[in-house]
Amino acid sequence: MADDFESGDLFQDPEGYYPEDAPPTFAEHGMLSGQTVRVRLVGDHPLYGNLLWNAGRTSSHYIEEHTEDLIRNKDVLEIGAAAGVPSIVSAIQGARTVVLTDYPDPDLVSNMQYNADLSASMIPAREDGLRRLHVDGYKWGSDVTKLRAYLPPAADGSPGLFDVLIMADVVYSHREHPNLIKTMRETMKKSPDSVALVIFTPYQPWLLPKTEQFFPLAEASGFTVTKIFQKVVEAVLFEKDPGDEQLRRTVFGYQIRWSPEELASSKA
To answer: pTM (2 decimals)?
Structure first.
């Protein structure tokens, strides 16, 4: 028997064996100001960078409507940003620093950076010449040192903290609720003016009670929760999905702030 048996292409997958990745597409978000934010979406990426979600659009409009008291000259962190429209709108509206984050997957992060670069001409320059909008990968609940490093130090020399957290369509991941709370506690400035915007749509309406468990967990972790709106949009995002259509078209908005007890303890 020959010792130099050759396998040839025996172990090579035939052409077309694996489905090709869907090519990236583009979507547009119309700002209330009349400007248009155009973003690239990540094909059919399993981490949902492939859609422009209703909660993201609604968050962006809320940011515009409340720019003066919420955004201008503030430091903003977006968690689970996907295409990053709320972060981009925050930068356009004059936030001092915006850090746009999602899961540290190379495709997602590079796409967020692409969108940040695509919108650069719409973002006003800072007087000190520093960038307003930054992009980074971040896993919920992990160390926040690199996120806080984008901010100037606090008066006591400690790493900076954020005035505003944007959390659009992240509470659907029920097992991640403790990690989201941990990130909130470690990134949000201890001030009565600091706020986390938690905005979501129940795309699986039968799981809404589990999704809403995030809010009593937040209250038990040193925060106060206030419902700020409930809006019904024109169309569902996934037409063929089961469940109550009215709920699948509804966007819920909440503000989460530090409790008075937490604020008092931080001054003690």
So the answer is: 0.89
